[in-house]
Amino acid sequence: MLSIDWRTPAAYRHTRNLPAAGFAWEYLRRNNEYRQEYRALAASKQPASGHLEAFVERWGVRFPQQSRRAA
């Protein structure tokens, strides 16, 4: 259980300086559907064709390219 009272403005003081993307992330990361889909996507080493694109489209997120190590 959270120790903050979500009904008081003091509980949200930290959000005053958040950029829009940070504020959106605070909501998105608490969304159970998003969290379930992310866990499923992260668990697969090679997502099926189109799954990552569908996830990005549905949730409006972007993932940076991972750098590849030279062999």
TrEMBL record:
Query: Superkingdom of this entry's organism?
Result: Bacteria
Location of the Transcriptional regulator-like domain: 5-64
InterPro entries in UniProt:
Trans_reg_dom
Q: What is this protein called?
A: Transcriptional regulator-like domain-containing protein
Source species of the chain: Aquamicrobium lusatiense
